[in-house]
Every structure is written in structure tokens, then in C-alpha cells.
User: Fold this.
Amino acid sequence: MGGTEILQPLQFITNCLTTVDGYPRTIFLLTDGAVDNTKEVLEFIKQNQKNQRVFSIGIGSGCSTELIKESARVGYGTYEFVGDDEDVNEKVIHLLKNSISPYITDFSLEFEDKSMVSYTVPNVESIGYVLPNQLIDFFVIFNEKAHNKKTWVKFRFYNGTKGQYEEIKASLNLPFAEQDDSLIKLGMYKFYKSLKNKTNGFDTYHPTDADLALS
Assistant:
């Protein structure tokens, strides 16, 4: 599209075209150039990320890498680049498959007693979104207050397919933690991106005390 305005078409699609309840709108953004208002475009996409997803394709060597990558990131989509001599069909098919995949986003952790937790690595709130059949690893760093304690961790997320927030509550049993200076040891919580259930294509992985045991 070269110098074609991108923000105005996005605003028209968002504000003037209706959607089906429970189904986020899917937008495919194709461009072979750059725009002067990349920041404004990305902010608009981010403001509407709960109601619509953006999948971006950059065509040729003159497209804006920032616009393509960031529009997909803040729009909970994916992106592809197509070289001057490449066939666009295969990459479009890949984006189409991703666009109909379930996704979850807006993650948060809640602790029964937050004073027992020093920090988590990485910060789960920094995770953008996840698609099925992929893995998230993060670590919970407990302090000495967690020694020989039982507690729980609640993992909350937004299910974009169902249009609602859901949560998983897991029990933690920390009787064998070994104190190492000011830290107990790393507790590893594995949460699969294949969070699914029988009604929407997601199987839910229910962590056990063994999964959450300190290592």
C-alpha cells in the first residue's frame, strides 16, 4: 500500500462494521511500505485487542518491520514477511490457520500469601498471548516465610475464544524446601499453552503437587 493511510481504515472497520457476539474480529493487514503514524496505529490496535485480532504481512524489502511485528504483537496475532521473489500463498495460509486457533491472554498470578513470594521470572503479566500446543515456563521465587508451608497459587487468564476470564487454582506443598541464604529454592510452575477444554477446543492441564514441587 506504500504511503496509504492505515489508521483510518482500521478505525472504520472497528467502529462501523458489526461483529458476531463471542467471536473477535480478525483483521489481515498487508503493506509494502511504511507509515508516518506507526505509534498511533499500534496504540489503536492495542486499545481494541480484546475485540479484534490483527495478522500482518509485510511485502517486499520496503515494508516497515516495526509496524508488521508490533501490530501483530499488540493485536494478539502473528506476522509474516514476503520477499520480492517469494510466493505469498503459503504464508497467507499459515496466517489463516493461526487466525482460527484458540488463544488466551491477559495473564495474572494470585497468591494466598504474597509475602512468601519474592518475585516471579518472567513476570507473567508481560506475556502477550499464547496459542495451543506451546509451553510457558516461569519460576516462583519463595522466601524463608514459605518454609514448611502449604499454600495455593491462582493463575488467571482471558479466554479470547469464549470471551471471558477463567482461572486455575493449584495447591502448593512446600515441606521439603531447603533454605539457601534468603531464598527457599526455585519452585517451578509449568503451564501449557494448550489450555483447552472440551467445549472450545482447549484441554485444561491441572497441575498437581508433584508438578509444583520444589526442585
The first helix runs from residue 7 to 16. Confidence is low (pLDDT under 50) at residues 179-215. The beta strands are 25-31, 52-59, 79-82, 104-111, 117-121, 129-130, 135-143, 149-159, 164-174, 183-192. The CA atoms of residues 91 and 97 lie 10 Å apart.
